[in-house]
Every structure is written in structure tokens, then in C-alpha cells.
Write a structure and sequence with these properties.
Elements: E1 4-8, H1 12-26, E2 30-33, E3 37-41, E4 50-54, E5 70-73, H2 77-89, E6 93-100, E7 108-114, E8 120-126
Length: 142
């Protein structure tokens, strides 16, 4: 569905250090770097997207979107914990420790952080659940 997502930054070098650490865990290499931004993932593979961080195009200071959040898919609960810890170790702030979020359904396991610019991130793993335990609850992301 998405080609890429962009997050603004007021300190590109700091953002590169932060996202290099997270993307290494996710196995997403940096696919572009320039004077005003950097990207991880792929712009060429239609089955994958890219995450871009950079200076806002309008030249004004980067700001956080109220209600905006980018969710990064993890392959297991341990990876959610690893991503959350890496975010905090590289200048991010805690927005919610990793754990189950039953309000989003029985499969949802997530952790939340903000990057050094204040952009909100979710690290999410959808646990396998048996069809009979779903009890009519559809999986959805908050």
C-alpha cells in the first residue's frame, strides 16, 4: 500500500545514528543518503517500502504530527523488545514498554518510543492465535 514514509528531522546526523540502529535490527539497509535526508528499505522493490528522514521541504523547523505514528513490523516479541531498547539507547524516549496490548486484540504485542525529534514510533508483532481464540475480534492497528 505504501511506497515510503517520511519523518522530519532537525538534526540529520543524529537521526541517521538513531535509525541506522533500528533498521539494522529490522534488516533494512540504508538505500539513500544525501545532504538533506537519508532512507532505509527500498525505492526499487514494489513489495517493500522505504523510511525517509530529512529536513522538511519547506525549509522550516521539523515538527511532530499530533496523532501521527509510524508502526514498524517486528518478526517476534524479542525483536519488539530489542527495537524499543535500541530506540532508548540511541536518544529516543519511552512511550510505552513492550508488552501485550489486549485492547487491540489478543494477537497484538507492541512497544512505543519517540525518536530524538519527537516522532512517535510503534514496534509491533502480531502473535499467531488460534482461530477459536479470536472470539470475533479482528486484528487491527491502533
Amino acid at each position: 500500500m505504501f511506497s515510503y514514509a517520511t519523518l522530519g528531522t532537525s538534526d540529520l546526523a543524529r537521526s541517521i545514528r538513531f535509525y541506522d540502529a533500528l533498521m539494522a535490527i529490522l534488516g533494512e539497509p540504508r538505500c539513500w543518503s544525501g545532504e538533506t535526508g537519508a532512507a532505509w528499505g527500498s525505492f526499487d522493490d514494489p513489495a517493500r517500502g522505504a523510511l525517509v528522514v530529512g529536513a522538511p521541504f519547506d525549509g522550516r523547523e521539523a515538527s511532530v504530527g499530533n496523532g501521527a505514528m509510524l508502526a514498524l513490523r517486528a518478526s517476534c516479541e524479542a525483536m519488539v523488545r530489542q527495537l524499543h531498547a535500541a530506540a532508548l539507547a540511541h536518544g529516543g524516549s519511552d512511550e510505552g514498554a513492550p508488552g501485550p496490548r489486549p485492547q487491540y486484540g489478543p494477537a497484538f504485542f507492541g512497544g512505543y518510543a519517540r525518536d530524538p525529534d519527537g516522532n512517535k514510533l510503534a514496534f509491533v508483532f502480531m502473535r499467531p492465535i488460534a482461530a477459536d481464540t479470536n472470539q470475533g475480534q479482528d486484528r487491527f492497528l491502533p
